[in-house]
Design a protein that fits this description.
about 300 residues; mainly beta; nine-stranded antiparallel beta sheet; eight-stranded antiparallel beta sheet; globular
Length: about 300
């Protein structure tokens, strides 16, 4: 559909408009009394969310991000699916194939409480089955209100079961990584991908002073990012997940990544709601699973 056709079907006067964003990609712009948000239909990805009473966005979005077919957008909340990390079969791109292709706008709705709900969808195609040989319907419900809610539903429309790993690979904007910590992972075991996958245990809050890439296991449903520079905390609640990933590229990788500024590592932190490592999800034919995350700023 063209931008005009999408607007004719899904525009909500004064609150939701579909625009041509960077690179000409279709984007959904939301402005309500509760919050503003920007969602890329390419990748089905929330790029920005800012509650009405906040001066800073909740999400980090790189100034050097790519906006083109076949490329992932660096920032916001990318969707990793149907695998997290490398393709176990060695055929597809890292973190799956849904974060670098166009989704469909299924529905938009203004709720009675003032929230805006957007439903995006993706289904299998002859191309996707060459990468991952299964039939599916993938649906993402995005609710823009005082908080941001994401719900990813995987439905198996084929005749054989399949297993997935997945993630909301969310980039949060922070004031300074040296004055930020993550609460709620105390005592959890984690796989340290920077240190040859060695299993370790978290002692106290998570603080970061070097490259970090960890998969935490047996994680509770609530995590908190405490940001002393921006003087706020971001509360992350989840459902359908037993693992969480914490990632910061640090200085060397930031310099090596063409879609990051050299010092972006100081102002981004990924805390990801995941089904990763051994936290795989098996979906039988004509069944579905859901991964849910809610993000809100508390003070």
């Amino acid at each position: 559909m063209t931008i005009e056709q999408l607007n004719a079907k899904h525009n909500i006067a004064g609150q939701l408009e579909i625009i041509a964003g960077k690179g000409g990609l279709p984007m959904i712009q939301v402005k309500t009394s509760k919050a503003t948000a920007l969602i890329s239909v390419h990748a089905g990805q929330v790029l920005s969310f800012k509650p009405a009473n906040e001066t800073e966005d909740m999400m980090f979005l790189s100034e050097k991000a790519y906006y083109q077919d076949g490329k992932a957008i660096k920032g916001g909340a990318p969707i990793c699916w149907p695998w997290f990390g490398a393709d176990p079969n060695g055929k597809g791109p890292a973190h799956g194939f849904v974060r670098n292709r166009l989704w469909h706008v299924v529905a938009t709705e203004a709720k009675a409480n003032g929230d805006i709900e957007i439903t995006l969808g993706l289904t299998d195609t002859p191309e996707t089955t060459t990468i991952w040989p299964y039939s599916f319907i993938l649906t993402q419900e995005i609710v823009i209100g005082n908080s941001l809610s994401l719900s990813l539903t995987t439905r198996n429309t084929g005749t054989e079961k399949f297993s997935i790993t997945q993630a909301f690979h969310t980039y949060f904007k922070i004031g300074n990584i040296a004055q930020t910590e993550i609460l709620g992972l105390e005592g959890c075991s984690y796989i340290d991908k920077v240190d040859n996958g060695i299993q370790k245990q978290q002692l106290g809050p998570v603080t970061i002073n070097s490259e970090v890439d960890r998969i935490y296991t047996n994680v509770g449903s609530t995590l908190t990012i405490d940001d002393r520079v921006l003087q706020r905390s971001i509360e992350i609640t989840s459902q359908g997940s037993k693992t969480a990933v914490v990632w910061n590229p640090w200085e060397k990788i930031s310099k090596e990544m063409a879609d990051l500024e050299d010092n972006d590592y100081q102002r981004l932190l990924c805390v990801e709601t995941t089904n990763a490592a051994q936290d795989t999800v098996e979906v039988a034919p004509d069944n579905e699973c859901r991964l849910v995350a809610n993000y809100r700023i508390i003070r």
